[in-house]
Design goal:
Length: 196
């Protein structure tokens, strides 16, 4: 039988749909799917809606209950195919983005704060000051630590004195630019908030 590309995609879609439907109700105790529980009914009398966690590209499902502007609860969405109700600690802190009366949490840092080495207090600075200072320190550290060739004479063009830690709230485009910048600078120690 000749199978066109369109037929193949249609058949694959049905197969995948079947897989998604089948897994939650699998009786195979050897697979993680056996741990799946059917979604609880949305039962709160206040507004309850589903959404996606804002913190990383995992895309875990979240159920949010709110009474107008007031946030009442955030919990894992048990029927979501990615997280099946589980949330990591970052998502559990989603609640802290806003206070229960709908205002921004006053403990969120929204301006540049700087504490000089050895100082006890934080000073408020401008973004221009912070960016210039970061650029100056990167240049100084990179110049002092740059390695062109390793001990075997292989060209490596790297610095091992600077590390970069990415944040889960970064989007694809920001991550792309940061990866380019890190590679251009020769930074080899890179990690990500979601992994730690
Ligand atoms: S931060 Fe945690 S809960 Fe949120 S999408 Fe990533 S892994 Fe899922």
């Amino acid at each position: 039988m000749e199978l066109s590309r369109r037929d193949f995609l249609k058949a694959s879609g049905v197969g995948m749909g079947g897989l998604l439907i089948y897994r939650p109700f699998s009786t195979d105790t050897a697979t993680p799917s056996s741990e799946f529980r059917p979604a609880p009914q949305l039962h709160k009398r206040i507004g309850e809606t589903s959404t996606i966690c804002a913190y990383c590209a995992g895309g875990c499902g979240v159920l949010v209950a709110a009474d107008k502007d007031k946030l009442i609860s955030i919990e894992g969405w048990a029927d979501h195919p990615i997280n099946r109700g589980g949330l990591c600690t970052k998502a559990q802190s989603l609640f802290q983005i806003r206070t229960v009366d709908g205002k921004d949490n006053p403990r969120r840092v929204t301006r540049v704060l700087y504490r000089a080495p050895g100082a006890a207090n934080w000073e408020e600075k401008t973004w221009d000051w912070a960016l210039d200072e970061i650029a100056k320190r990167i240049k100084k550290t990179r110049d002092a630590s740059f390695v062109q060739k390793d001990s075997a004479g292989i060209t490596v063009n790297r610095t091992e004195a600077i590390g970069h830690l990415g944040g889960s709230a970064l989007d694809n485009e920001e991550c792309y630019l940061l990866a380019k910048m890190n590679n251009a600078l020769g930074i080899v120690y890179k990690d990500h908030q979601a992994r730690i």
